[in-house]
Write a structure and sequence with these properties.
The chain is an alpha+beta fold and 251 residues long. The chain contains four helices and seven strands.
Length: 251
């Protein structure tokens, strides 16, 4: 075997290593760039939601028209009037400011006979039953202002428990089942919810204004991580090549 045969693998190895380094760099930089794009998208989304919450409320009909056209109604301010059907309220298991309890979803019957489910707010665990908070069971004509919330297409995750309809405990907001469980026809129910604002109810229950907008925005941190890894890889490769070049080959 000649010296050329021995040298050939050594010449090919740096080329192969260089290709791997370039591929790794391309992946890391792509991931960093993707996170930057996600950052801009998330910042725009947060700003849009803030603008919706700060806007003046619009009539329910406007939100219905937007929903029918396929528009994004989430967190848009809306106002509606009607009579609460208190004996058909549904209870959604929730925590509020560290306290366990329920969000009270009460059907609001509109002037045209249709039904809008309103999340009136939070009650502590011991106040689940209406008899413990009768002052808050509003009667007569009421006007509610709040945020439109879209109907969920299905169970959010397999880790979420199934709704216990018999005990009137919902772990996810299944609008169709909420309506069906109290004898309301699906066709008469408006296909989204409204979260009531923080207007004080008699005796303080339910506690309104419980909508939680939690949009974590860690994309800048992730972008720095991927770009940092790319920079570290470049430094490691540069040091390695420098050290190899500094060595005097033995003839």
């Amino acid at each position: 075997m000649t010296d050329i045969d021995h040298a050939a693998p050594r010449r090919r190895l740096p080329v192969f290593t260089g290709i791997l380094v370039l591929i790794a760099l391309a992946i890391l930089i792509s991931l960093g760039t993707w996170q930057v794009e996600r950052l801009h998208w998330k910042e725009g989304l947060i700003a849009d939601i803030a603008a919706r919450q700060a806007a003046s409320p619009v009539p329910l009909a406007d939100i219905e028209a937007m929903a029918a056209a396929g528009g994004d109604i989430e967190y848009r301010k809306v106002t509606a009037s009607g009579r609460y059907i208190n004996n058909k309220e549904r209870h959604f298991f929730a925590t509020w400011r560290g306290q366990t309890g329920y969000y009270i979803y009460t059907p609001l019957e509109l002037a045209d006979g249709r039904i809008l489910f309103v999340n009136r707010g939070f009650v502590p665990y011991d106040n689940k039953e209406p008899e413990t908070r009768m002052q808050g069971q509003l009667t007569d004509q009421q006007t509610v202002t709040g945020l439109a919330r879209e109907k969920l297409p299905g169970k959010p995750s397999w880790v979420v428990p199934d709704n216990d309809v018999a005990k009137n405990i919902f772990y996810w907001k299944d609008l169709d089942v909420m309506a069906e469980s109290v004898g309301l026809e699906k066709a008469s129910v408006i296909p989204f919810f409204v979260d009531a604002d923080s207007t004080l109810n008699p005796a303080g229950l339910p506690i309104g204004g419980v909508t939680q907008v939690d949009l974590p925005n860690d994309h800048l941190q992730y972008a720095f991580t991927w770009y940092g890894l790319a920079a570290v890889l470049l430094v490691v490769v540069a040091i390695s090549w420098f050290r190899k070049g500094a060595k005097t080959p033995q003839q």
